[in-house]
Write a structure and sequence with these properties.
By secondary structure, this protein is mainly α. 54% of the residues lie in helices and 0% in strands. The chain has a domain at 60-112.
């Protein structure tokens, strides 16, 4: 929580300049991922998150990204059910796509 608070003090110049990256090997569980996402939502904008980062040198790391996306969608679905965010499938789908790929592509400039 302290890192997220400090991170918020140094934003500027670009969208979500400083990201709350996670050592996923410590949070490679449903509970760890949910905790990371919930902390991020409390201190930042979830829609600006660049998603799960991994070294991806191993073919076996790819299922971890699918698992992350499922945890992310579960959390978003729960918020919709509680009425915390609008039930707008198009907007929510765009947010999941942004978190899963578009934000990282924009942040790191992969396809430029």
């Amino acid at each position: 929580m302290q890192l997220l608070t400090v991170m918020g003090c140094f934003q500027g110049g670009m969208k979500q300049k400083i990201q709350f990256g996670t050592a996923w090997w410590f949070n490679d569980t449903r509970a760890g991922m949910r905790n990371q996402l919930q902390l991020l939502m409390e201190q930042s904008l979830l829609g600006n998150f660049i998603g799960m980062l991994t070294d991806s040198r191993s073919f076996l790391s790819y299922p971890r990204h699918e698992y992350f996306r499922r945890v992310l969608c579960e959390l978003i679905g729960e918020m919709v059910e509680r009425g915390q965010i609008p039930n707008d499938e198009k907007r929510l789908g765009k947010m999941v796509q942004d978190i899963s790929f578009n934000n990282a592509d924009e942040y790191f400039g992969f396809l430029k």
